[in-house]
Amino acid sequence: MSKLSNFFRKWWGTPAAAEPEPARKRIPRDLWSAADWARVRAPVRHRDQELSRKAMSWLATLPPDVRPHELCTHYPRIANRLAVCWRDIGLIDHLLDELLVDRRHDRQGFPETVLKEITRLYDFHERRLQTDDDKSTDDTSTQTR
């Protein structure tokens, strides 16, 4: 029987025994190359190339001087993510931090106008948190009286 299976392996070109791939060493993310990041990056989808309805609604809630027009024009995928995360304080803190702090060191970065818009969003978010903290402090002091 083994002669027959060897014949078919040769005929179809299948290896006799698949050799396991050698295990890759885990490299810390801060040492990843652009190729490493490309391997794990989500594929570009059509919906990532235009603003979502949620992002358009989110923009309408922002003060006019805070609205990130350049970001929305050139990076709609990021604007869509900001819109989805905006109400979750932990997520938006993390996302804005990831956008503003370069941890990969081999990236081109955002154009200066976009970077200024992200910084304005971050500042607005921080003021929003301080206002919420002030309101909750006022509410607590009112309830204890």
Layout of secondary structure:
Layout: H1 2-12, H2 34-40, H3 53-61, H4 69-74, H5 76-85, H6 89-100, H7 112-143
Helix pairs in contact: 3-5, 6-7
Description:
With 145 residues, the chain is mainly α. The protein has a domain of 97 residues. Helices cover 60% and strands 0% of the residues. Helix 3 crosses helix 5 and helix 6 packs antiparallel against helix 7. The model has no long low-confidence stretch (mean pLDDT 80).
What's the rounded overall pLDDT mean? 80
Shape: elongated
Which residue ranges are poorly predicted, with pLDDT under 50 across at least 5 consecutive positions? Answer: none
In whole angstroms, how far apart are the ends?
Answer: 91 Å
Question: What is the N-to-C order of secondary-structure elements (H for helix, E for strand)?
Answer: HHHHHHH
Helix share bin:
55-70%
SS-derived structural category? mainly alpha
Largest sheet: none
Strand content: under 5%
Number of helices: 7
